[in-house]
Amino acid sequence: MNSKMVHTGEIIMHNKNVYWDETMMQNDFHQPSILAIGDSWFWYPLLGGSLLSKLGNLVEKKEHYILAHGNNGAEAYDYIYGTYKRRIQTALQLHGDSLSAVFISGGGNDFAGLSDMRPLLLKDCSACTSAEACYRSGDDEKSLNRFLNKVTGSFIALIDKIIGATWNTTQNATGPTKIYLHNYDYARPTGIGIFGAESKWLRASLVVANVPTHLQDSCIRFLIDEFTLRLKGLVARYPGRVRLVDSRGTLGDDDWANELHPTSTGFEKIAHNVWLPILQGDGLAPK
């Protein structure tokens, strides 16, 4: 992988058939057949690369080129209403007719961090006896249900934009542009961040909320499971267009580099064990 730092602090990368910078793609005279809209699971800059670099390897022999938009720390809201709205809209306008697929990685940053996850939990969870009981329930403004409704709303708006921009692809021999969502995996709330530094992503919120130690892993599992139910709802809402890559339970403890990100081997495991069969079934990767 070739990479360089630019003055904005962003990382511009090119890995064979995956481009994280459109200018570099244009300079190489390539057009994207896959658009990747994502967070750090698509943009992870450390040695070994991200999930997206592994996915690029899977579709390379089918001569697919991937253009990525988003960045580390991106939230689902940002793709349709915030920071990356204009770039994504422009990419869809320019390339929509030629896209075989759109990969989306989002939702993780919406709940990771003290300012995001802590409000979803009760003020004091010390007496809770289940993971579900630790979360605010009902239709409270800070409840898990309201939070997931907001995230799902962002996904719906984004998917509608993609379908609108790719409507011509319904006439393609391979069928319309497919949209792939994924649900990460059951992250471990270890408190470990980048390079072993202390993290505020997951464990910190659980500790502040006095979640019993024996329930902390279960709290993250419950959150991922509830998020997955919303993604399954999107598959049902858009039959034949949206795929869910359900990667829960794929990784072991040694496959995590920190609280949120797998190691290179972990990303490789998710790509080959879970994504590959789905991509093969849709003709995007060779069998």
Strand order of the biggest β-sheet: 1-2-3-5-4-6-7-8
> How many distinct helices?
11
**Helicity level, as a percent range?**
25-40%
Structural class: alpha/beta
Low-confidence stretches: 1-12
Number of strands: 8
Task: Tell me the distance between the termini.
Answer: 25 Å
The radius of gyration is 19 Å
* Binned strand content: 5-15%
Helix/strand order, N-terminal first: EEEHEHHEHHEHHHEHHEH
How would a crystallographer describe the biggest sheet? 8 strands, mixed
Q: Per the principal axes of the C-alpha atoms, what is the gross shape?
A: globular
Mean pLDDT: 92
Explained architecture:
The chain is of the alpha/beta class and 287 residues long. It has 11 helices and 8 strands. Strands 1-2-3-5-4-6-7-8 form an 8-stranded mixed sheet, sandwiched between helices.
